[in-house]
Design goal:
This protein is of the alpha/beta class. It contains 13 helices and 10 strands.
Length: 275
């Protein structure tokens, strides 16, 4: 309710960056109030029976996460997680943001799955954050640099005892021939997943990889049906950000409940067909 009054009118016609900053400012102020995080978790937190899943060896209690672009330095990941997200992705990280994020994480352990999106200073960020995050999304904006960016990260990962999944985030307007090359690379080198930017990309990657790559759909999700369409197209997980910023915390709960209801309806339908 407060978000609808204080933030939504302002972010309506703002750029993505300004809208995200306004939303983060709101959450920073609101969550400084003692006792509000448990209240948010009680109101919005939704374990969503039947929605649990394991993706690249990590357990998620629902398929809905918060994509990068809001919590750049890992300031509010637990507060944002209390809105019902099964994981929160901090970043996009550069070296400066990573150092700040690591400091923040050291002060407060993540309550659920924490991901990190890296967009520059790849080797430095990956090494600094490796012990503090559960999986990494590598934002490859130029597919021609894919091998040069990711191969050194694979070598760094071999030096650690704990295995942390690596996901490649593809450009929004990536041509199909480039997308195919990225899929082939991921399958060849054991990359754990691909983060897609549209419904079409999600369908293409899932079909091309024959379901062997986990797909995280990071699209501009503004409705419950959009979220369902991405799941139906092969996405294992979806990431909200613009929907949270423009529609408020209640949108997260509505998406999760919509997905959960569809799962329940499918179970009922299958049960009747088997009778």
């Amino acid at each position: 309710m407060l978000y609808d009054i204080l933030v939504k009118p302002f972010v309506k016609n703002q750029s993505a960056e300004k809208a995200s900053k306004a939303a983060l400012r709101y959450f920073r102020i609101i969550n400084s109030i003692p006792g509000l995080r448990p209240f948010y978790r009680f109101i919005h937190g939704n374990k969503a029976a039947g929605m649990e899943r394991e993706v690249f060896g990590i357990k998620f209690y629902n398929p809905v996460g918060l994509g990068a672009g809001l919590d750049l330095k890992g300031e509010l990941y637990n507060d944002l997680n209390s809105l019902g997200f099964s994981f929160v992705e901090i970043g996009p990280l550069n070296a400066e943001c990573t150092r700040a994020a690591v400091h923040n994480i050291q002060q407060e352990k993540p309550s659920d799955v924490l991901a990190a999106c890296i967009s520059s200073d790849f080797q430095t960020c990956f090494s600094l954050a490796y012990d503090f995050c559960d999986f990494f999304t590598i934002d490859v904006r130029n597919p021609n640099k894919l091998e040069n960016i990711v191969n050194p990260l694979l070598d760094i990962r071999l030096t650690y005892d704990d295995y942390k999944p690596i996901v490649i985030k593809v450009p929004e307007n990536c041509p199909e021939e480039e997308l195919k090359r990225i899929v082939d690379y991921c399958l060849l080198y054991g990359i754990d997943g691909i983060c897609t930017r549209s419904l079409k990309q999600t369908q293409y990657v899932y079909k091309l990889s024959d379901g062997r790559l986990a797909v995280i759909a990071n699209s501009h999700i503004e409705s419950e049906q959009q979220a369902q369409d991405l799941i139906d197209s092969g996405a294992s997980l979806i990431e909200l950000r613009s929907g949270l910023v423009h529609k408020g915390p209640s949108f997260v709960r509505r998406v999760i409940q919509f997905l959960e209801n569809n799962v329940k309806n499918n179970v009922k339908r299958d049960s009747k067909q088997n009778q």
